[in-house]
Amino acid sequence: MFGRRRNKSEEPEKGTSDDFGSYEEDAAPDDSRSAGAVTDAEGARVKLPPAPRPDGPWDVSEVTDPGNGRVNLGGLYVPGVEGMELRVEVAGESIVAATLVVQDSALQLQAFAAPKREGLWDEVREEIATGITRQGGVIDEVEGPLGWELRAQVPVQLPDGTNGVQVVRFVGVDGPRWFLRGVISGQGAVQPQTGGLLEQVFRDTVIVRGESPMAPRDPIVLKLPEDAQMVPDGVQQETVEEGSRFAGGLDKLQRGPEITEVR
Fold first, then answer.
1. For residues 77 and 217, is the Cβ–Cβ distance under 8 A?
2. How far apart are CA 183 and CA 170, in angstroms?
3. Exposure pattern of 31-57 as b/e (b: 16+ CB <10 Å)?
């Protein structure tokens, strides 16, 4: 279900996979899959090359002035939006993700090193989906404005101790030796038709992979902007069971300081 790519003109196929971290699926093979999903006798996934990116996100080599209208986070140049809050998130001692909060929606961005001639997004979608369903969540794979994405209903514990569901969209794009993953939450996930602004931010993000050797899936480290205005944040982010590092704000990343940007 996850190892194929189709044109927008084709009718998208919706599936219900499960989970959101490291995931496996026991579904029988589907003979209706496109040629891109063909696997060998042992069931290994066919590695697909990165798809074209006519509308972004961009590699730093493709942009003349990446700092024009964007916040420099080192490994990412993130477009500035009026009234947004920019929150960085850490793993150990490194900043590895950035979350933009605009009104009642949020977009978490995280970039990873990737193989030179192979994309990661097909494989990552399967991992995320398997992990979420394993935890009792629901997954729908659809072809959205940013390409193939996962729309998930993820089990969470509410502040009052009761069980609830968080609606999240996982989006991703493969680039030259990098992979950019986004997690859209809030109204942009509950009502995807309202997520146009965050989708445009995702498209206009610039990735700086660098020339240093990196293993595939290693996170591209970020840094704080030089003129950052720090805002204390006392909210503790939820943690969940061990899962995929690509599960985004739903994994064990810790929330770091917030930067208020008004443009």
1. no
2. 5
3. eeeeeebeeeeeeeeeebebeebeebb
Is the per-residue pLDDT at 189 higher than 90? yes
Q: Is the dihedral of CA 6, 8, 12, 18 positive or negative?
A: positive
Q: Do 112 and 178 touch, CB atoms closer than 8 A?
A: yes
Q: Is the pTM of this model over 0.85?
A: no
DSSP category for residue 44: P
Q: How do residues 95-117 score in pLDDT, each as one tens digit?
A: 889 999 999 999 999 999 999 88
191-216 pLDDT, tens digit per residue, is 999 899 999 999 999 999 999 999 99
Q: Residue 88, CB half-sphere, CA atoms under 13 Å: how many?
A: 27
SS percent in the chain: helix, strand, coil, step 5:
15, 35, 50
Residues 6+ positions from 10 with CB-CB distance below 8 Å: none
Question: Where is pLDDT greater, at 25 or 92?
Answer: 92
Please give the Cα distance from 97 to 94 (Å, whole number).
9
Bridge partners, 59 (sequence order): 207
CA atoms of 34 and 32, how far apart (whole Å): 6
Segment 44-64, tens digit of pLDDT: 556 677 877 888 899 999 999
pLDDT at 160: 87
- Please give the C-alpha separations between residue 223 and each of 49, 73, 97, 100, 227, in angstroms, as whole numbers: 29, 5, 10, 15, 12
Q: What is the DSSP secondary structure assignment for residue 241, as one 8-state letter? A: S
Q: What are phi and psi of 196, to 5 degrees?
A: -60, -40
Pairwise CA distance, residues 166 & 192, whole Å: 14
Per-residue model confidence (pLDDT) at position 50: 80
